[in-house]
Predict the structure of Xanthine dehydrogenase YagT iron-sulfur-binding subunit.
Amino acid sequence: MTSKTPIHLDINGHRHELEVEPRVTLLDALRDHLGLTGTKKGCDHGQCGACTVHVDGQRVLACLTLAAQAEGRAVTTIEGLAEGDGTLHAVQAAFLEQDAFQCGYCTPGQIMSAVACIREGHAGSDDEIREYMAGNLCRCGAYPHIVAAVRQAALEVAS
Ligand code: FES
Ligand code: FES
């Protein structure tokens, strides 16, 4: 039997104490231990981007990150993106306006990547957006709408 270790995670500005085995990923900690199921598990092998979250403002794949590695760092998930009063983040609003999803399974990861992509200054053209969003797969093929949403949000954030 593997022993569990206590860790604390700062998720969307809230501190959580939990006891997990050292091998537990951040993705499983979020979904299975904290009930934050907005972050999706697609491949669980670092290949689809569905599990993208931010750690200290940088996008990471939660399926390739151990929960223990996130200890003491600020984690933001899709649940923490909107304002406290429910006002959507510009990227969330743009995804809605541009119809940038079909089944929606990839959408939280797409949105978290898009927020980082814009913040990194990598949303200057459609080609650049495609390049820096390439780690987020969409099996529904909503790519043209996703690029349009990122382009719209980037313009709004810049204005
Ligand atoms: Fe993490 Fe696919 S679930 S990259
Ligand atoms: Fe279905 Fe992207 S909207 S996987």
Notes: Residues 117 and 132 are 6 Å apart (CA to CA). Strands lie at 5-11, 14-20, 52-55, 58-61, 74-76. The mean pLDDT is 96.
